[in-house]
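A brief tutorial aside. Many learners find it easier to grasp structure tokens once they have seen a single protein encoded end to end. The record that follows does exactly this for Dihydrolipoyl dehydrogenase. Read the sequence first, then the structure, and try to relate runs of similar tokens to stretches of the chain.
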Amino acid sequence: MSTEIKTQVVVLGAGPAGYSAAFRCADLGLETVIVERYNTLGGVCLNVGCIPSKALLHVAKVIEEAKALAEHGIVFGEPKTDIDKIRTWKEKVITQLTGGLAGMAKGRKVKVVNGLGKFTGANTLEVEGENGKTVINFDNAIIAAGSRPIQLPFIPHEDPRVWDSTDALELKEVPKRMLVMGGGIIGLEMGTVYHALGSEIDVVEMFDQVIPAADKDIVKVFTKRISKKFNLMLETKVTAVEAKEDGIYVSMEGKKAPAEAQRYDAVLVAIGRVPNGKNLDAGKAGVEVDDRGFIRVDKQLRTNVPHIFAIGDIVGQPMLAHKGVHEGHVAAEVIAGKKHYFDPKVIPSIAYTEPEVAWVGLTEKEAKEKGISYETATFPWAASGRAIASDCADGMTKLIFDKESHRV
């Protein structure tokens, strides 16, 4: 069965960027349709990303704090974990939030079409869903189709013991020994969760530090703490992955590489994400997509086709939900005729690990690359009574400011 819809704005993708754009369009009086391939709104972030990871990280934090308090005279005994109950609670959190989004869409009269949407022309989109095809004729489109985990050809991704972030968040089991490929935020957060639940964690990272986007002195404090929990193999890369009956065997080379292939019960591949730009037939609408799948936009989030906009992961780094939300608001307001543009000077980044690492604005590394004359100031938390009382005196705060104007 085929149906046809006419709308002022169609939003392709219902993650934070997409639903924020759609809701803002509706608030501004524009007739709006969301196309989403899954049955719930929220995209990767709410369903298999930010929200479930934060739920599990909360569990991990409580477990670790319960253990640490023994040194201060409060003994709970060894924490006992029920994986099924933890998983059920995590799913409850997701259901509550996605249900809330559905209610917000209904309240704003935003129509949701479930299925895989692809362009068929500059003003038409075809959605293939369970109930047949839906043809959408639109005046304006906002592409918010997100990204997916990177897969490497030499890794047997089809083996259930080889995970991406979505698999790790399902919490089907707690492996005895687990390798995290990639020392970025996603890998370290998942390593934090599974270590708290009882896994032995190895982390392999090809650069000379974890969280490569952050400054070394900030990461140094973090690395010192997590080295007590994880086996960190920096300046090391994976060269082969073989699935055998008794485990996943991984060979490595580099500074910290073991001489022999290592056996793991699970391998989490967390080496980044790629945009979904090539999955939309965007070329049929005249939209240019680069070789990596990114869509180039101007400061108003317009693509090379003036009435088609793009936001979120698909337009480039950083791939962060809160960046996409702001882009969504800008795109909606431009479509509504308002003079607005996206000028991201300070996008915050954070690793919700234990301890947490966060930064906002230019890093020292970026300031050097831009040729900015700068100075730094640091405050050691060892001088903070609150930090000492909270058992986190090894932390620090760092400011980077312009040498002449002293602007942070």
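Self-check: Residues 162-271 form a domain with the FAD/NAD(P)-binding domain fold (CATH 3.50.50.60). If you spotted this yourself, you are ready for the next section.
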